[in-house]
């Protein structure tokens, strides 16, 4: 592999940009006073549009980098060590997604709140990684060239039929499972259609890997990304209306009337083009480390903003109460604190995990005598109770 593709700095930079935009988007949207959420205000409208780009970029980049690492190793199928790592990662994201929604006060009262079962970014990305692994293994068993076709096919099908399944509530499923498929119960993200962005990122990764040694890789990629992005943003709705008139299929008209998926995919193409164009300027170590620490940043931001485990987050105390200046200033501080804390954690992760492990073992050793003593007391007490009611056998 050529040196220029040995490390995809522009992908790490995109991940950094996406996570930081997610942080400020969540902060401002949750804490800005609703009186200032004026869709007639140009500044707010521009901010709102760019905020809408964040999630599609984040999902697409997640699929891209995961698949890039998955297919670049020489081993194939189950022999590929990235398969088991990917399964572990997907399950880990699902676990963390639920853990962040756990409320300790509710658990202590013997209650599990409905919010615990809502699906968010981590749930969808975790399940998406498992889905990509499934497609990868299926393609390896049949035809290796089938991988890119399947990935693109999943994206197209999910995006095209969104007007149909968007109305389904999946009431026949347990709510915990239905939340992965419908937003009717309050889920922020659902696996359909968001899996489509992840598989599209995986599709781009396959293409990138296939042509990684092409002399004009970036030149062609930037030009194609710009053209495709412009077409999807400005002309896709008219295209679907034309198809509706031509075929009489109301599905195409429904897509055109709410064409956010293809338009946002166009936005993703433009973001890819910009970051590839300026890839030479995106090699600052801090920026790249932020891009490689997105999970830690997301966890920290969720705890501070939404109050994971305790419910005592900024959202509880300042929900829709800040002025624009306070919200913007607060968002900058919030992004800085989350990124700095995450980078410090990543820097000292080995030492922190070692300390936790040692502390856990020490706690177990300290509690073990008390545990054994309490067992004896309980057994003795139960034995006395049983004898008192005549249920203990005597020799």
Automatic annotation (TrEMBL):
Q: Where are the transmembrane segments?
A: 48-71, 115-138, 145-165, 185-208, 220-241, 261-282, 294-318, 324-343
Heparan-alpha-glucosaminide N-acetyltransferase catalytic domain span: 7-218
This protein's UniProt keywords: Membrane, Transmembrane, Transmembrane helix
The name this protein carries in UniProt is DUF1624 domain-containing protein
Record the organism.
Answer: Maribacter polysiphoniae
